[in-house]
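[job 0412] stage=complex_fold ligand=zinc ion status=START
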Amino acid sequence: MSKYCLLTNDVETHSIWFNTLRDETGVKVLEEGMPLLLEIYKKFNIKSTFYFVGDMAEKFPDVVKMILPFGHEVASHGWTHEVDQAFDVLSFEQQKEHLMRSKNILEDISKQKVVSFRAPALRVNQHTPRALIETGFESDSSVASQRFDAFLSFGGLKKLNWLRAPRLPYQTAADNLFKKEMVR
Ligand SMILES: [Zn+2]
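[job 0412] stage=complex_fold status=DONE, emitting structure tokens
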């Protein structure tokens, strides 16, 4: 059996250096980061998935448009990367609203159907699977299976669930992204 791996990218204005969201970082992503990354992927003939934050796509639509000629997938990284609006603190209705807003803007810009999601900072709660289903998403990549991240990032305690999450892709339980749906 041949081995494979998936390379995916979150595209956002979060500056690691300043630990905050900055438009200057968006400009850097657009002018420096993305062109370089796209060139590397092209060189090795890699097709990837890019998870864009919705409000960044609204401010910098060209950052979405530039991946289209290469055949990569456009996906959603939520509406905003603000720490106080992460999916683990949003209600069910708010999650659906963030998902729809980001899906709509990304589909408008890319003319692709957007069906893949990764939560900002990988923070999710029990409402997230249902919110995703009801807004037409088909895959989620918010669970970093087997990774130990506790206390090193926001929402660290919930991320302990990663340690027991299945390693290979799975059909999620309707109220718990960390668990496989029971086969009936
Ligand atoms: Zn992110």
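The two ends are 30 Å apart (CA to CA).
[job 0412] exit 0
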